[in-house]
Amino acid sequence: MRYVTDKNRNISAILAFMIIPISGFAMDVYVPSFPSMVQDLHIPISSVRLTMTIFLISYGVSQLFVGSISDTYGRYKLCLGSLVAFIITNIVIVLTKSIEVIFVMRAIQGLVISIIMVSKRSLFIDAFTGDKQKHYTSLLSVVWSSAPVIAPFLGGYLQHSFEWRANFYFLAIYAFVMLVLELRYSGETLKEMKSFHLSSVANTYKKMISTPDFAYG
Fold first, then answer.
1. Does residue 129 sit in helix, strand or coil?
2. Longest Cα pair distance anywhere in the chain, in angstroms?
3. pTM for the model
C-alpha cells in the first residue's frame, strides 16, 4: 500500500481539488440536454428529471455510512474503485436506450460519487494540521461550490456542439484522467484502519440527533 507522505501530500491535495468538482459535474452537466434526451429516448420529461432525483437520493443517503466504510477499508482503494465504477456507469449510459438502465446507473453514480467526495475531503484532515488544514478546508468549499455553477454552461456547450451523450463521455474521460493521476501521484492517507460495526454507526447518529444543538441548529 502506497501512502501519502510529506513529500507528495501537496500534489495529493491538488489532485483532490481537481477531483472534487466531479460531484457537481455529475449532478448538473447534463441538465441542458434534458429536452434532447426526451426526444431521443422517447420518454416524458419527468423520467429525465427522475434521473437527477435518483442520483441525489443515492448521493445523500450514501454519505450516512461511507465515512465509516472508508475508516475501515481506507480512502485510496475506495476512491480508485469508485472512479472505475463511475467510468463504467457513464459508458453504460452512453450505450443504452433504456431509461430504466439509466436509473440504475445514476443510483450507482450517487453512491460512488459520495465515496469519492468523502475520501477526498478526508485527505485534508488526515494529511494536514493547523493553519494549512484550515486553509485547505476553506478552499475546499469554494472549489466544491463552483462546479454546479460551471457545469450547466459546460453541458450547454457539449449539447450544442454534439448531443446529450457527450455529457457522459465527458464525465467518463474526466474520471479516467483523474484515475490515472491518482494511480501515479496519490496514495492512502489513513494510517490506522478501524473495524466497521453497523451498531456503532447507528449509535453515533443517535447521539447526534439527540443533541439539542444539532437537532435544533
1. coil
2. 54
3. 0.90
Q: For the domain 9-212, what is the CATH superfamily, name and number? A: MFS general substrate transporter like domains (1.20.1250.20)
Closest to 174 measured CA to CA, from 87, 88, 95? 87
Angle formed at CA 20 by CA 14 and CA 21, multiple of 5 degrees: 115
Determine how many CB atoms are found less than 10 A away from the CB of residue 42: 9
- Where b means 16+ CB within 10 Å and e means fewer, 160-194 reads eeeebbbbbebbbebbeebbebbeeebbbbbeeee
17-72: per-residue pLDDT in tens?
999 999 999 999 999 999 999 999 999 999 999 999 999 999 999 998 898 899 88
Instruction: Tell me if 164 sits within 8 A of 15, measured CB to CB.
Output: no
